[in-house]
Structure formats: structure tokens, C-alpha cells
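Moderator note: this is an archived Q&A kept for reference. The question asked for a predicted structure of one protein chain; the sequence and the answer are reproduced below.
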Amino acid sequence: MKRKKQPVILEDLLVEDYAAEGKSLARVEGKVVFVDNAVPGDRVDLRLQKSKKDWAEGTAVRFRAYSPDRVEPFCPHFGVCGGCQWQMLPYDRQLAYKQRQVTELLRRIGKVALPEPLPILGARPDQTRYYRNKIEYTFGTRRYLTREQLADPAVSAEGPVAGFHAKGFFDKLVDIDTCYLQAEPGNAIRRAIRQFGIEQGYSFYDIRQHRGLLRTLQIRLCTTGELMVNLVLGEEDAPRTERLLAHLARTFPQITTLLYTINTKFNDSLHDLEPVAWTGPGYVIEQLEDYRFKIGPLSFFQTNTRQAEQLYRVTRDFAGLSGRETVYDLYCGTGSIGIFLSGGAARVIGVEVVAAAVEDARENARLNGLTHTAFFPGDVAEVCTEAFFAEQGRPDVIITDPPRAGMSEKLVRQILAMEAPVVVYVSCNPATQARDLAWLDEKYEVTHIRPVDMFPHTHHIENVVRLQRR
């Protein structure tokens, strides 16, 4: 019988610095070791998970001494659910590390001339919790147990659970009591559904067997006060669905639109499904400055409304609009950036590959009474032809806000061919942004950089770069 390989434990390491993506680093005999679950200043024993010639990865399994920078995490689920990885760091230290991460990634990967980045725009002290306007919970049948719970025979892993997936597990959920990411009544709604389901004998979704009624729950709470709840069910059961929705509507009269969605697929994606409005109009209205946005259950919208305003203000400042410019908003989604900038532009042209998002953008333009915007579905390289420019005008300013993978080389070539005097690049991943800046360096120089923290207590960071045509 083959013996199981024993893990390698490196003892009493000083965690020296922050690396990136939520990891810190230590050094062993000249080799860099990337460390999970630790912060600079900790002394730890580390279980090695991967070891290469020049670097290694590991997880802190014992703390011999804690960093003086540490603070007590405010969430009892910290370190288990996989979210809010940096609660043990004071917020000012989080911002300092994010600022440095942006600078180092742009220099190391981009290798282009850069100005000194402007200071990161962090959230206000009273807005570092409860900042998400949208959150999604999962119902299941297997509870993640801590080591202490595993040692207690009275605690069972089997049973109805409502919360988040445990880090590293597809089938185990952390049974959440209170989540600090979204303001009430989000937690109360989740707890009420879980309790009603248990009392009424409703089945919770078994992800291994792909069966069960209660599957996921989406809650969107807007700064306008409007509240949308979308209950996702894994089976068709009209009588039980009606009873539960009626219970929610009675218990939470502040819900302005209540929907349900039947999802019998093997995955949780809802983009190809049809949510049904049980009460209310089927959407909510969110607001950025004086602009209003209609958001349905399938719409994309920035998750942190207050920091989205900060992000878009930086974008608007970098665009330097005088009222005469034609602005092209690439990856325009539901049109939020283009609409936010529209007050300073002569014309806004949005291009987005997702046709449903383009319809949302057009609806949002109508909602705000805008007559100088136009949104087009399709791939930018195919839409933005010379014939299109002849009809819509060439861009004076290009705004690009791609997904985490960044822009394709094909799109970069298209931007270079469009030769707009100014490009403003909004990114949720400074590493791929840095790669794209190297491609754009053929015709553009970077003139301004400013990070914006959209997700306090996580390692995620947004960054805005202004490029000027040479």
C-alpha cells in the first residue's frame, strides 16, 4: 500500500512583505515563498503546497507571533467563506498595499514610461462595510465544518444551509448568520427563507444530485431605497413557490420587486433564463449623481454604488471633456459610464457585444432624457468601420472598460487605428491593463493613473489610466 506523502512544514518564517492578489511573501534560503492567510510582520509555520526552483507557495498553519499591523476581523465567518480576505488589516494599510500593487504591476508588466500614480480613492470610513448593492446567497444540503465543529459529534455537516460556498469547496456551504457586505434587510430575508423552508419541509438544493427546490437568492438594494429580490428555484413547484413568495411579501413589505426564476440546469448562470416578476415592475432604479439607471435581475451594474461614482468621476476628469467631443464607450455594458459622462460630451457612442445590455443602455438613455447618445451591439472591430465613422463621427475620446481578461490584441489594434487623441482605460485587473498599455505604447503615452478601491477588505482593485496620443 502506497504511503501518503507527508506535507512539508517550514517553521518560524517571518512574513516580510505583501506580494499581490492577497498573498504575502517570506524568504527561505534566497527563495521567495508566497504565503496565504498571513500579513507582513507575522511569524508563521507554513505548509508548503508548491515548490519550484526560484519560488514556492504555502499556507500559514500556525502563528508564532502576530504582526503589530493586525486588527481583529469583524466577521465571525472570516477566513472560512472566502470573501473579505483582508479584514485583519487596517483599512489604511489595505489602501497602501493596493496603491503599491498598481504601481508595481504597471511598471513590471507594462514596461512603459509612467507618471507617478495619483493617490488611491478609498471608501469613506463609514462605507467600508455594507457597501454592496448586490449579493447572492446559495442554499444547499452540506455545511462546511471548522476543525472544532468536526471534533464535536453533536454537530452534523448534513442539513439545510444558506450562505456562501466555502473556500475551495464546490459542494459545502458556510451557514451565514450575518454578512457585513450588504445592509439589511438582506440577512433577514435570507434567514427568513431558510427558516420557512425548514418549517415547511422544502427541499434545499443538492448540488451533487442536482435536485432540490431552494437553490440561490439574489438581493439588490439600491441607494434610492428600492429593493429587488430574485429567488432562484431548482424545480417547478407552483404551490410551494406561491406560499414562499407570499410569505416574503408579507414579511418584507419594503421589497419593491419580487421575482422568481426556475433553473433546472447544472450551472447557476441565469443569463439564458427568464425571471418572473411576482410583485412590482421586475426592476429597480439606482442613481449615480443625477443619472438614473434601470436595473433588471440579469443586468450588470457596478456592485458598489458610492465607489462607482468615484470611479466614474475619475474617468470623467481624465476624459477632459469640453462639450464638443464625440466619446466612444467601448465595452459599454448597460451604458453607465457613457451616460455618466454625457453631460460634457457632444455625442456618446456605446458599443457592446451583449445585445441585451445594449437594450438596457438605450432604455437608460431614455430614462435620463438623453438624445445625443447611441448604443450599438456587436464586436468593436466589426462595428467601428470607416462607414460607421462617416455616419457617427470619429472618436475624440475613447473609454474602454474591459473584463478581467483585458482587451484582445485585435481590439487594441483597432483602437490604434481609430487614433483618438485621448483614451481612458478603466480596469478591474491592473495586470492585464499593464499588458495592454505595452501594446498601446506604439501611439500613446500614459499621462495620468489613479486607483479606486471598489471592494474594501478584499485584494481587488480598480485602476483608471489616461493615455494621450503622441
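Archived answer notes: The chain has a mean pLDDT of 94.
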